[in-house]
Amino acid sequence: MRRESIAETDLDNMLYAYCGRTAQEPFKREKRRKVFITKPALCLVLTLFITVVMSVYVVGLSTNRDNAPAKKLYAFSVEKLAAFSKEKTIQEKTARKGVGAWQPRIEYADGNLVVFTVATGAFVFDYQAGEFINTFDLEKIGVPAFAQGDSFSTLTVSMDGKYGLLYSCDAGETSGSVAAEEYRELDLKTGAVKRLDSEDEFFEKHEPYQVLPADTTAFKKLPGFAFGGKTAVWGGNEYLIALDWQNGESSLGSMHLVIMNSKTGDIKSLVSIFDKVK
Amino acid sequence: MNAIPDEYVTQYSGDLTRLCMSLCGNRVDAEDLFQDTWLKAARHFKRYQPDKPFLNWLFTICVNTFKNSVNAAYRQRRHTFASDAEREMFFAAIPDTTAENTDEYAALHEAIGKLTKKQRAVVALFYFRDFSISDIAEMLKIPEGTVKSRLSAARAEIKRRLENEA
Question: CB under 8 Å to A40, separation ≥6 — which residues?
Fold first, then answer.
């Protein structure tokens, strides 16, 4: 069924509302924030959002203070942790305000393997064997010069979990410019790196893995997990894979990989990531 | 390194949250964008020019982080919700939503998700804070004509999708 033509004003009003503003509400910079904040629904969303984000960082930050991490896993992140510990201001501000950089992200997951990133580190973990296959510092593998200032690296994993597309960008976040960018194909098993001319070169050979959003209801019921982590699903949503910090006030050994039945909540596997490398 | 004053974080986190949600369309990506934006703002706070609005500077970082992610992992994510609860919460946050018009906003959400990231950024800035064309052009470092054309193309695309909605 085809809808009737939408009036421009109606479309405007819908877009204003979608962006959190009352339709036809005159914009007043000084007063609007108060109106925005006092709307109960928006406050609820904001509260939940901030709580989740804060829990991620507070948990990550608290674990940062304690044990010296194992060398193999933290070949990359010992330096990162040290660097962050010096940035007291960022830590203090972000810890209190719920902003953090230690939010793990699952880039790939199947019945055996999970690839995740934390900060600039990438980890290839065979959770059936309980072993790390490889760990990488994406900034160092990419373009070391980009590791300073406005730069970032990201990893896109192929559908078969064997290869990663490493994107390194020297970007000016405040200027919108991209000074330089490079692409590399990374063999996640052997660690071999191959420079690519473009990302298309990777995608011509490999279909990218699609990270789907997961229903975390069952996971959130597990005791000790604040749900600050990231999740992925596999097996037609049958299993939920989550990476999170358990009992945030303990140590680095508290980061767990959880594989559970997303419907029943039954835990198939629960692996303490950092115990495996101590 | 300069510190971001507490009051800035308190004052602007709400608006930044909503902008992230408008850009990303789902909580998972919005969380990442939110924290990436604040982290970059903290790292580069010395570059902020106090005579200019902080919000514009913060939003510029946010939008550029979002745009740059077009080449990165974010593009794998879909403009979808992780659960029914997240979906309900998202639409409940839209002013004046009712049981009758939720489907319309769902269609709008889907249509916005089909826009390019560049178009989505312009739409979000224009409708979210009434930034002027010239403000948006300055924030995104593009000509005003480009802002207008992206906005026009985005509106036409949204309109077309809503009108053709089954």
Answer: none
A107: closest chain B residue by CA: B73
Checking ipTM against 0.90, whether it exceeds it is: no
Give the contacts of A133 (CB within 8 A, at least 6 positions apart): A113, A124, A125, A126, A188, A189
What's the confidence (pLDDT) of residue B149?
92
| pLDDT surpassing 60 at residue B14 | yes
Of the residues B1, B16, B18, B34, the best mutation for testing chain A's interface (the one with the most A CB atoms within 10 Å of its CB) is B18
**Hey, are the CB atoms on A213 and B129 less than 8 Å from each other?**
no
What is the assigned CATH class of domain B6-163? Answer: mainly alpha
Decide if B146 touches A, using CB distance below 8 A.
Answer: no
**In chain B, domain spans:** 6-163
pLDDT the model gives residue A205? 92
DSSP run (H or E) holding A239: strand A239-245
* Alpha carbon separation from A158 to A55, A155, A185, A188, B74 (Å, rounded): 31, 10, 10, 10, 15
DSSP state of A186: E
